[in-house]
Amino acid sequence: MGGRTTRQRKAVLSALAGCQDFVSAQELHALLVADAHKIGLTTVYRALRDLEAEGGVDVVRDEAGGRLYRRRPADGHRHYLICRCCGSSRPVDSEVVERWADRIAADTGFAAVQHTVELTGLCTDCHTTEDGEDTAVMVR
Hints:
By secondary structure, this protein is α+β, with helices and mostly antiparallel strands. It contains five helices and six strands.
């Protein structure tokens, strides 16, 4: 992790590590404040921006275009399948995407190529109710 390691930045990292799914900066800030951390929302945004630049977090967009964050595992960049209803997420095998992006970079001569792949759907819990009816209510 580059940059200065401040008390606030450590708190943001710790809070992110405790989140199983992607969270917004506002949700993360609320978690920190509820845990008695004195930290401003701007500081949370700054820490997340720095972590993103350093590769310390994965970022996806929600349905409204807002950014959601999840601490990146030590083994690197991942892609996720995210439930549009409840926001739960699970990593997916994306080796084919990584190879494709590498091939496009090599074929075009571009350097430092980045990509974003977002897969959304309805998880098993949100897809059907107990009586078998489909649901599609957004709760996030």
